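WP5 quarterly update. Target: TIGR02594 family protein. Source organism: Psychroserpens luteus. Length: 232 aa.
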Amino acid sequence: MKDILEIASMEIGVKEKKGKGNNPRIIQYAKDTGFDNYKSDDSHWCSLFMNWCAHEAGLERSYSLGARSWLRVGMPITNPELGDVVVFWRVSPESWQGHVGLFNGYSRDGRIYCLGGNQGDQVSSTGKSQDRILGYRRLRLVEDVHFPRKILKKGSKGVEVKLLQDSLKKLGFEVGTTDGDFGQRTEKELIQFQLTNQNLTANGVFDKATREYMEIVLSGLISVKSLVDKVF
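Structure tokens (predicted):
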């Protein structure tokens, strides 16, 4: 699974071309994501870039060049993590105009760092006022999740653990920050997940049986609501 923040970071410095002509990289974003009518990098491209990043990461997309379209995508959240979508208003909160990027932390003076396209006419990480935030969204995978055939347990680290943590959160289990570190909180919430299936051993180890069951649940064959209701 590619990390959307890493994908966006690799594009830092891509800049629109002044005057005649276009930066072919920005036009490629449009081709890759099906925006066939996008022909000039003079047009606003923050949402174009966000759609491209989400596409590359296998996550939900807005399929719109409007920044505020991202308020209808993914899950609404109040406590953002690195890589979550953040939407800002421009002109006024009631206007149609906006800006969209990826949450990239806070500055010492309380501003929010946003990694996105069309910031200073390029892909960059820029500090913005929190007063202009319309909302945060967490994008979900659009394809069935298939975990690496690897046993994960307390002490494990890496992208496989990030995938497990994101999947648990998608199912309603509060593991906290997706940091790729299988700690006590991830273990506790995995046990809660295992308790929804009497055929699993609730030991906090992401073994073959737990992995196969989670893949079935994430595919939509079992209701997430009924799953969580079994525990709480």
